[in-house]
Amino acid sequence: MRKKLNYIFIYDINTSGGLGTMESDERLKKIAIIEIAGELFVENGFQKTTVRQICKKAGVNLNAVNYYFGSKMKLYMEVLRYYYEIGLNKYPDDRGIKKSDPPEQKMRFYIHSIMMRMFEEGSPTWFYKLVAREYTEPTDVEDILIKEFMRPSYAMLASIIEDILGEKATEKTAYLCAMSIIGQCLYFRNSPQIASRLLENKKFDKKEILEIEKHIYVFSLSAVTYYMKINSLKTTEYFN
């Protein structure tokens, strides 16, 4: 299971330009720049946010971004890592999961954690807000997003699903099921206005989010449980 991290010290200053062993004042200044940049990136997007805006709002010299991070793009990556870890610290993928738990229970906890990271108010959700912007305003971080953030999380869920599907299931099938589950979560995260109107203008408060979370779990567990049986039926010939 993934070790819970203290986000203040997650980066190695010698490898990623991160916080590492920097002196306290320097570390706090760097955190301040990351947090201001995150706020502006969420509000305006990467392209429309300038280094000048970041430095002015953070109250630092115009050269601070290049000094601490090397470039605006590298700062953007640090922002993504920073807020990903904040959300993951509060709601880790393996939160509440015991090794001895049945896979169905593990899937339930996993869905709860990712829904909370997506929907809770404040900075724990900023990573997903930034990722949502990548769909409409893509930058050059796609490969890093997949390698550092998405693949480890998908791998964990796929492993849980493999245990539910049984020995005959392929790794590809488990990943496709994992993508379907995450896809449901992302639909409600990225299309709240449409989903709200389809649900008769219900507000996405915590109670409603928990109901949606339960629906995703029940629907997905039912699908995964019967997947291998239905996939073996002759009706699947229509898809060949």
Please name the fourth-level CATH homologous superfamily of the largest domain. Answer: Tetracycline Repressor, domain 2
Total helices: the number is 10
- Determine the structural class based on helices, strands and strand pairing: mainly alpha
Measured on Cα atoms, how large is the radius of gyration?
20 Å
Q: What characteristic shape results from the CA principal axes?
A: elongated
Q: Domains counted in the coordinates: how many?
A: 2
What is the strand tally? 0
How much of the residues is beta strand, in percent? under 5%
Share of helix, binned: 55-70%
CATH architecture of the largest domain: Orthogonal Bundle
User: Spans of 5+ residues with little confidence (pLDDT < 50)?
Assistant: 1-18
The succession of helices and strands, N to C, reads: HHHHHHHHHH
Amino- and carboxy-terminal Cα gap: 38 Å
| Largest β-sheet summary | none
Return the CATH class of the largest domain: Mainly Alpha
The whole-number mean of residue pLDDT values reads 85
Per the CATH scheme, the topology name of the largest domain is: Tetracycline Repressor, domain 2
